[in-house]
Each structure stands twice: as C-alpha cells, then as structure tokens.
Amino acid sequence: MQTIDKKKSTKKAWAKALAQPAKQFPPTQLQIVSGNIPTGLRGTLYRNGPARLERGGLHMGHWFDGDGAILAVHFTDSGATGLYRYVQTAGYQEEEAKDRLLYGNYGMTAPGPIWNQWLKPIKNAANTSVLALPDKLLALWEGGKPYSLDLQNLATFGEDDLGGLTVGMPYSAHYKRDPQTGEIFNFGITPGLNATLNIYRSERTGKIVQKASHVLEGVPLVHDFVLAGQYLVFCLPPVRLNLLPTVIGLSDFGHCLEWQANKGTQILVVDRHTLQVVSRGEAEPWYQWHFANGYVDASGAVIVDMVRYPDFQTNQFLREVATGETHTLAVSTLWRMCLDPLTGKVKAMTEIMDRHCEFPIVPPQDQGQTSHQTYLTVHRSGVDSRKEIFGAIARFDHKSDTLTVGDGGENRYCSEAIYAPDAQNPDKGWVMTVVYDGNCDKPGTAALPCDRSEVWVYNADRLDEEPACKLELPSVIPHSFHGTWKPAQP
Question: pTM of the prediction?
Fold first, then answer.
C-alpha cells in the first residue's frame, strides 16, 4: 500500500484511465461515433476489471487489488445500451461506508496493526472475469466464491456457492465451457503446506454436479487451464508461495510468490469425465497467465496454445501498472505445446508468434477443438513495452502463420478482444474491444472530451480495416481484465 504521489511524473497516457476511481453510470443509450451496429450483433458484452485502486489517499499495492466493476453493453434492434456498476461485495460495501481501506489482498496487507491481518480475511475483489449463465452473471475472482449479479441491471445478489462450493473452495476466473454439451469446467486452489487443486464440472446452469481434489507440491500459482477434447490440462509454473509470512501478516501474497526455475513446469492431464489425473509430467521452466485453446490432434496428441513468459517478471510489471508508471521488462509471446496425454511428456514446444502479446482467445464455438484463429492484444509497432500497455488487437491465422493487427492509434489502449458469432451468419463474427482514448491533451483534439472510452466493433476477418462501429461510453472504463459475450435468446 502506498501514499499517492501527486508530483509531476513521466507517466504515459494510459495512466490517466487509472488515476481516479471509476464512475458508475446507469442504463444509457450509447451514441454511435462512427459506422453502424451490425444487424447480426444481438446480445450483451460484459467486461470486468479493477475500477478503484485508491481510497482515503492510500493506493492499493497491485493492479489485482482493485475493486471490481462490470460494464454491460446490451445490443438490441433499438441500438446499444450501456451500464457500469461496482460489484457490491461485502468488503467493498464496508470500505465504502467507512471511506477507508480495511482489507488486505493479493498485493497489500491489511492496514493498521499486524493483528488486523489475522482478524480479517483478504477481500474478495470480484474483479477478474465474468461467466454469463441463463439466469445470472457471475463476477469471478480466483481467491474465493463468485458473486452473482442480475444479467440486465447488474444488481449484486451476493456470493454464490453454485450448489457445491464449501468453505475453502474458491472458484477460478478462468472457466472453460464446452460449446457442444454446455458443460462448464473450472478449478480452485486451496492453500496449505501442500495446496489442493479442486476441479469442478457444472451443467449449463452453473450448478456443480461433480468435484475432485488433487494434492499439489507446495503452493503453486495456477491462473488458467485448458480444455482439450476429453482432457483438462494444467501447467503449474515454478512459482511457489512462501506461506508463513502471509499467514502471520508480515507480507502479502504477491511479494511472497517465489520464482524457482530449478523445479521446472509441472503438467497435470485430467480426464474431463472422471476428473481424475491421467498423467503427470515435468518440462522446462516458463510462466503463463493465459492459454488460448487446446485440442486433440489426429495422432492423439494434445495441442496447447499459450502466451508464455520466460520467468515471473510479469508480476512486477503488473504491480507497477497500479502506480501508473511501468519500468519492468516482461515479454510474452505465443507458443504451441505438443503433449502426450498418457505420459504427461512434452513432445515439442515451439514459439509460433514472436510479437509481444497477451489475453489470447478463440471463437467460443472452437473451445476445446481445433481453431484456425487466435485473437490477442498486442503492442503497437515501435513502442517501449516497459512503459506502455497494449494498444492494438490482432488475429493470428494458424493456417498461413500471419498476423492481422487492428491498431487503435497513438495513445489509445485496447482491452481483451471478445468474439461474438453473427446471429444471422454462422460463418461470420464480430470482435469487440473497449478502447481508452488518451489523446485529449494533444493539439487539434480540443473538440473531443477528455478521458473518453469507447466500444469498437470489428469485422472478425478484417481487423486491419476501420471498425464497423464505434460507440461512445458515458465515462472512462479503466483498463480491465476479462469479458464475455452472451448471445440474445431466440
């Protein structure tokens, strides 16, 4: 936790989007800046991310600590309506009432005397991702249970156990949904001297119908996993939590995560039907936050695409994002792993795209199956990745090994790409991103309002062309993590 420094700095334009707590707005008809809303785009875009990084003059310690807020954009025949609301978690409501920070989190200990850390659990920030179910929206945060919200007005209902989560069983931000069966798979890590990996299978309503638990070595950091045909694949990077300082309140989780390259990356292959381990293996050390996709090829091998880092410097870079000024080099690129599922042995590991990237996704209908397209966020050409965040989205074509970039332009910053299948043409799709425009202080832009955010809708096959539509949002949406698309019901 840090006192806010109001001295003049060399911060980049992206920092302005995080400088103040985000302002909520009620359901608002969105104005079209350019283009037209596609007639095949009917449903709702949801996004989640940290919207408040300070309170009472104190700054939270890590980007991961910010209070979650949800953006919803409903696309109908009448146009687009947007709304933005904080998730009303118990911790948020208590801190809001007292207008001061009370809880510790990933990158900060609880303020005040050390026994505050013992008396108060870390705050569920509900700030990482969203899962749209038939009758509710889940705001996800991997350290605890999800919070359920109203799909239309984003009112918070409260914590949700999905009919199966008991005490000490968190629910990760990175679920996987089978497009054929509607089944939802997810996991959660329960810390201990040796952590427990809890795996969940849910029906399409979100209700958990099957669980399994597996003991791990130490307490690794596991953020994501892969659905690949009949398998669930977990890659456990050599990051381990030094548990004692966090338990007694001397340090936070983020500072107690240690890179131990001598351990290598451990691999668990799990049968999706039984949730039992098929094989365990170990490979060279790397770190990944996110996987793009996985599938089983014609030979029976599991193919996994991921955004891979050589080490854990990314944690420091993301800590610096919360300050509005970054200096750490943490470069990630797109890799493909070929794995023997019966032995857990890596048969091949290949870098397939050498451009710095993150937040990989595939069209939802391709989840767990072969996909020829991966969508990502990338840096604009020529920027210093130590000081900038991502300013473009891109599509990597696995058939032609080509990258097509949708460049947001100077001082514009794009969120994760979200794919929406066209409701009228199954062979067509749209890609949406929330863009923060930091150009208001530039000469010649005085007519534009300062601190603006927009929703850009691209033709999924034409990212290098102008967006099909741009929609103006009523207030700034701080840089966020993950989102989803929920098609309109027929």
Answer: 0.95
Residues 381/356, Cβ–Cβ less than 8 Å: no
- Please give the Cα distance from 406 to 414 (Å, whole number): 10
Structure confidence by residue, pLDDT tens digits, 365-378: 999 999 999 999 99
Amino acid 59 reads: H
Q: Which residues, other chains included, contact 273 with Cβ-Cβ below 8 Å and sequence gap of 6+?
A: 230
Among 448, 390, 360, CA closest to 12: 390
- Cα 1 to Cα 54: distance, rounded to the nearest angstrom: 9
- The per-residue pLDDT for 395 is 98
The residues pairing with 295 across neighbouring beta strands, listed in sequence order, are 303
User: Do 246 and 256 touch, CB atoms closer than 8 A?
Assistant: yes
What tokens appear for 195 in the block?
Answer: 């952590």
Interatomic CA distance for residues 73 and 9, integer angstroms: 35
Cα 476–chain centre separation = 19
Q: Cβ distance 149 to 163 under 8 Å?
A: no
φ, ψ for residue 316, nearest 5 deg: -70, -40
Dist. CA 441–CA 325, nearest whole Å: 18
Q: Which helix (H) or strand (E) holds 351?
A: strand 345-353
Q: Where are the domains of the chain?
A: 18-487
* DSSP states of 59-70: E-SSGGGSEEEE
Residue 126, SS3 per DSSP? coil
> Which amino acid is residue 363, in one-letter code?
P
Low-confidence ranges of the chain (pLDDT < 50): 1-7, 442-446
Hey, which CATH number is domain 18-487, 2.40.70.10, 2.130.10.10, 3.30.365.10, 1.10.10.10? 2.130.10.10
Residue 331 DSSP label: -
